[in-house]
Amino acid sequence: MRPLILALTLALAVPAIALPASATGPEHGPEHGHHRVDDLRDLARKLHISIGSAVDVAALRAEPDYQARLNREFDHITAENAMKWESVEPERGVYAWEDADEVVRNARRHGQQVRGHTLVWHNQLPAWLTGGVEDGTIDATELRKILRDHVTTQVRRYKGKIRAWDVVNEALNEDGTMRQSIWLTHLGPGYIADAFRWARRADPRAKLYLNDYNVEWNAPKIEGTLNLIKELRAQRVPIDGMGFQGHLGIQYDYPGDWANVMRRFADLGLEIAVTELDVRMVLPVTPEKLATQAEYYGRALSDCLSVRACREFTVWGFTDRHSWVPGWFDGEGSACLLDENLAPKPAYDTLLTTRRVSGP
Ligand code: XIL
Predict the structure, then answer these.
(1) Which of 170, 216, 295, 312 is catalytic?
(2) Is 324 touching ligand 1 by the criterion CB < 6 Å?
(3) Is residue 80 within 6 Å of ligand 1 at its C-beta?
(4) Least confident of 12-26, 104-118, 119-133, 171-185
(5) What does the pLDDT look like over 68-90, one tens digit per residue?
(6) Best exposed site among 21, 171, 180, 276 by fewest CB in 10 Å?
(7) Distance in Å, CA 229 to ligand 1 centroid
């Protein structure tokens, strides 16, 4: 039996406002064992996991402070949008790899591993594809070939440069049944097994993940996802990991069973990753809400650390300057670790003080 690993968060007393940047600078970094923890990258090294962020490629190009902070804090990155189908093949057969290439190039230059996101999804598909399926000019046989070519082309392009791929994203409904996407409707449930097999063939060393949201807590979705993975495994489909998106909000309870849920997936022999963590709040921001947010971030990291198979902890953007939350959740925001000016919020400091400890 493996030793029981517990993670303990030593939450900092939360001041009335976010700590100034200098309070977490190298001179003042919290102690970690006998060593100071300077930043998230240093923390990742000490915890023996990867700590990642989604990357906004426009900001990466245009904002030196964004780029510097990303490269200082993170040892793992995910392209927020640049690898999605509508981004890489806006017109049929016309590929636009510049943005995705830039994200990968920056990562390699800074010693960061890369999560590929995402190959098969129902959102952010190019209009030529959804339109063609809708008007019948793309039939099921052709659609399957298009999907195979897409998976193969993209995985091959970055062969050896992507640690893990989100092969299939958001395949299930909240009730645990399969989502009625164009993939399910036209190709049947076998599209999932196909996609994993095509991806494995294109890059045998990349870890292949299923990725979804609300699997942190929603029982029917948890059971449905576990059953799907068991079926895939029974068919010898090459699936290596389960990604928990982790889009949380402090107006909801923290998903208190998350570590146990991770463990159930790990017990199937899967690697685990937190792939898109953010913790939003109903605006306006208050010190109390920031304190709750800090607790949620800390618990999420502790949960990951308590499961040996959890090896990556990625946030969906690191600064409120570039976060999908205000655009997608009416009246909500402030979901990231750093504010618009890249000043650390209490959540950042809580992560720096989170540690892995051996339990009884
Ligand atoms: C979001 C991006 O952050 C936005 O910029 C974009 O407009 C929509 O998609 N689950 C996922 C991510 O898997 O790809 C989504 O990213 C957030 C939810």
Answers:
(1) 170
(2) yes
(3) yes
(4) 12-26
(5) 999 999 999 999 999 999 999 99
(6) 180
(7) 24
Atom of ligand 1 nearest to the CA of 84: 14
- 316 C-alpha to center of ligand 1: Å? 9
Cα-to-centroid distance, 81 and ligand 1 (Å): 7
How many Å lie between the centroid of ligand 1 and the Cα of residue 328? Answer: 9
User: Does residue 24 surpass a pLDDT of 80?
Assistant: no
- Give the Å distance between the CA of 80 and the centre of ligand 1: 7
Residue 33 confidence class, pLDDT cut points 50, 70, 90: low
Asked if 340 is an active-site residue, the reply is: no
- Which residue, among 168, 252, 148, has the nearest Cα to 210 in the 3D structure? 168
Atom of ligand 1 nearest to the CA of 117: 14
* pTM attached to this predicted model: 0.91
* HEC-encoded secondary structure of the chain: CCCCEEEEECCCCCCCCCCCHHHHCCCCCCEECCEECCCHHHHHHHHCCEEEEEECHHHHHHCHHHHHHHHHHCCEEEECCCCCHHHHCCECCECCCHHHHHHHHHHHHCCCEEEEEEEECCCCCCHHHHHHHHCCCCCHHHHHHHHHHHHHHHHHHCCCCCCEEEEEECCECCCCCECCCHHHHHHCCCHHHHHHHHHHHHCCCCEEEEEECCCCCCHHHHHHHHHHHHHHHHCCCCCCEEEECCEEECCCCCCCCHHHHHHHHHCCCCEEEEEEEEEEEECCCCHHHHHHHHHHHHHHHHHHHCCCCEEEEEECCCECCCCCHHHHCCCEECCCCECCCCCECHHHHHHHCEEEEECC
Ligand 1 binding pocket mutation candidate from 55, 56, 57, 81 (most atoms within 8 A of CB): 81
Question: Atom 16, ligand 1: which residue's CA is nearest?
Answer: 80
Lowest mean pLDDT across 23-37, 248-262, 328-342: 23-37
Cβ of 81 closer than 6 Å to ligand 1, yes or no, is yes
Residue type, 129: L
